[in-house]
Amino acid sequence: MASALINVPAKAKRGDIIEIKTLMSHIMETGYRHTASGEVVPRDIITSFTCRFNGNEIFRADLFPAVAANPFFSFFTTATESGKFEFEWIGDKGFSETASASISVE
Amino acid sequence: MQQSPNSSRRQFLGLAGGAAVLGVVPIVTVRPAEATPAMLAAAIRNVAGGAAVKTGKVKLDIPPLVENGNTVPLTVSVAHPMAPEDHVVSIHLFNEKNPQPNIGNFHLGPHNGRAQVSTRIRLADSQKVVAIAKLSDGSFWSASVDVVVTLAACTEEVI
């Protein structure tokens, strides 16, 4: 069961630069590991992470197997207006998860 | 009469140099088990498209000595304004010796306010980690850190 952890300040002053932290639980299987019998464990990773604010993309990441399990990202944005952050993770084997968080800007 | 042997020597050296340049066309037929510095250079060329990558502006915070290569925290920041007319477009992370040279690409814009990204990565060996930032004026800036890893990622068997 996939689950996301999101850390967005609930309130901010207009013009403040705020930090957003996200963590998605995922194995991030690299595709380079072998079982004891020598078979390759197939790749199963998150390939793309996107953050949108009120529908506009503000941050996007392309992920490779070198990103650690349970991908964590922290990035910044300028608080301009109240609204909703939407987060989306897309990956191998049809993996797709979303999460959202609201902020009120004064 | 002194001139002619000299000039022919020069011509010969010029031709030899040209032949050497032509001869050094890398032909990669088999994908190596781990990325090589050549693959790192190729991955950087894919991003920079042949543009010069200058050292500076970028700060790569990563522990120089890592016990567990499975989760290595790192922070990349770029000392550059994030104004609509002049900002950081993207940050790219590379490594030297993992099976793939790419780690991640991060796409930014003026709305970010600060060009700084943190994440956690895997390192399969002691190696160099490179961060490259692309600015809106088309220039590229980089920073690299050598990291020593005691327990490598990706190599253990699955039970």
Automatic annotation (TrEMBL), chain A:
It comes from the Bacteria. Pfam families: SoxZ. InterPro entries: Ig-like_fold (IPR013783), Ig_E-set (IPR014756), SoxZ (IPR030995), SoxZ_dom (IPR014880). This is Thiosulfate oxidation carrier complex protein SoxZ. Gene3D superfamilies: Immunoglobulins. Residues 9-101 form the Sulphur oxidation protein SoxZ domain. NCBIfam families: SoxZ_true.
TrEMBL record, chain B:
The keyword Translocase does not apply. Residues 46-154 form the Ig-like SoxY domain. The chain crosses the membrane at residues 12-30. Coiled coil: none annotated. Pfam families: SoxY. The keyword Transmembrane applies. It comes from the Bacteria. GO terms for molecular function: iron ion binding; oxidoreductase activity. PROSITE patterns: TAT (PS51318). Keywords: Membrane, Transmembrane, Transmembrane helix. This is SoxY-related AACIE arm protein. It comes from Bradyrhizobium australiense.
